[in-house]
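PROTOCOL LOG
Step 1. Enter all chains and additional molecules of the complex.
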Amino acid sequence: MAGIMAENTEVIAALYHLLWLAILLVFLSITYKAVVRFVFTYRIRQRYNDIPHLPRHWLAGNLVNVGERLSPSINAHPDNAMQEIWDELGQPPAYMIDLAPVDRAMMIIADPTIAEAITQPSPEYKYSIPKSNTLQQITRLVGDHSLVLIEGEEWRIQRRRFNKGFAPTHLNTLIPFVVSKTRVFLDRLKGYAQNGEDFQLKDPASDLTTDIITQLAIEKDFQAQTVPEGQGPKSTFGLLTSIKTMSSLTEKTGQGFDISGYIHPERKAKEWIYDRLYTKAIYNEIINKLPSIKQERSTSGKKPSTVSSAKAIVNLALTGLDPTPSVLNSTVSQVKTFLFAGQDTTSTLIQWMALELSKSYPSSPLYSDHHKQIREHLCAEHDAVFGSSDPFAALDVLSREDAHADELLGSKLPYTTAFIKEALRLNPPGGSARLIPLSPYDPDYPNQKSQQPHFIDLPAWTHSKTGEHHEARRIRVDGMRLYNTHFIIHRNPNTWGPDAAEFDPSRFLDRSGKASVDEVEEAMNTHKHNTPHGNGSTSPRTTKSATKTAQTDLPHPYHISTLPTGSYRPFERGPRTCIGSNLAYIEAKIVLAIMARGFEWTKVGLDGTRPKPEEVVYGGTGKEDVKVGESQGWRVWSINQVTSVPVDGMRMRIKLRR
Ligand code: HEM
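Step 2. Run joint prediction.
Step 3. Record the structure below.
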């Protein structure tokens, strides 16, 4: 008995010591982390003083004064608050938000030359400065091997594998399918016109883009436009519902601090379940395709000689490869990426285009003669190319085999293209966030100890309010997140001129206003291969900021061809440019060809006619629309739903025009 007691005492004493040891280890680890954080904060406070910024608290930096403006309760995309701060700071080329000790500092970029410098290759960063780790928040949505997330050689190999699926030669084979799906979209619009009820354009537009991207990616027609909600792929656990749910559950970066996002177990569980369902469904679709891909190979004995002989992007990407687990995993990630990236972005573009059309009708409170002229130009071009007898003739013409639809869409619609470009300029659905590890030691990147300091050139600028001049200077940026804020870059009056906030497609037309779009593209890409300097420095070749050459015969004084390189970048530029831009243009051109001539658009609610109190107001803010609308000057603004989307789903009422 005494022996057992003694043994127990020893065990208890040993456990007691272990407990103390554990407490000591936890204490040391917390102390170590606190010291690292302290040093990190100290460095941040020392390093970036040369970059314009709002006043900083000695301990909390900009956490409070910027955090208040980014609060999720404001229900606006962070780009809006960032533009507000930029204005307040006098519109500098870039400014800093200091989030230490909670997070690293962030640079908000408004100047195209800086944006260009960080997205072009350099000796240090072969495929441009790496993406920010904040993007990891979309990992479940797009898969961990997604093109959007991966870096280095892995990225290069994957991009090469999938580029062919988005090449114009391949996309052109898809035009008949896009046209046939746009017919279904047209039928839905006609339905809304007939019943005269308000609707959110986001619904038919995102169903259309879903139908197109699922076909292109995995050759699967889910008939998103006709399947009723709650059935088939739109049932509770259906594939289309899974994508939407995954997207809505994704944490929104840059949206201030929201504790519910971190501790919501129900949300985490839901995310896990839908991720499993979604990934499995995509995986099965790919597995089911393997026999036909093999068949294609064995019948031809070699790879298909033209990309057009195989339609789905996965077919193209898997042809000639052994379907090893790693190949299949990365393919699943890319398909998830395409389904996500191919839907909301293009649907959002369609919605903003409709808003601009609505301003051309006297019923709109935002009516202007300028908008009416723009619509007339647009319709005249459609009359000339597709014939004037039927407003929907574009769909018939484009489906005729002898029509050379690719040429029509490629170069015969310069005004339409300019209209689309302008809609994307004012309302870019995304931006690009990059990150350079802190030198010489970064707590999040311990393997990067030997890295050199990294500098970029901040061009000279004049404070928009005080008129104070600031000389150009080199600023140190390692350790920072660098955010190319397309929303600000595209609306920067120092680049785009005093009417930067106005919708005007002539910025993208040539002298005659009729030239082929290729010429405009050429002008835009003149400095395409602009490579930054080495030695840990990123410095663009073009440093002029809105330096205007006297080109009075251009249709717009701030014509795209006169602007600094990289002023226009809705799809981002450099190696990590969007893979789907050609597809987005094809879709937008076909849709615009029926929206402009076929319907009279009336915006309802925000930016349009004010609803009566008893009317149901729906959209991102629900019945709050009216209240929030008042505070925001009754304009449609964008909110953060992974990409930037119109707050009210673009609520419209339409009539058939002819
Ligand atoms: C109006 C439509 C679209 C806009 C404005 C747009 C915009 C962008 C932007 C700004 C990026 C860079 C993101 C970053 O740097 O983190 C990007 C990348 C990407 N986009 Fe798009 N996108 C559009 C449509 C599409 C479509 C239709 C697809 C595919 C089906 C697509 C697939 C991708 C992919 C895979 C990437 C990553 C490319 C890489 O890093 O190699 N996008 N897009």
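Step 4. Note key features.
The radius of gyration is 27 Å.
The pocket of protoporphyrin IX containing FE is lined by residues 131, 147-148, 159, 213, 337-338, 341-342, 345-346, 349, 424, 429-430, 432, 570-572, 576, 578-580, 583-584 (CB under 6 Å).
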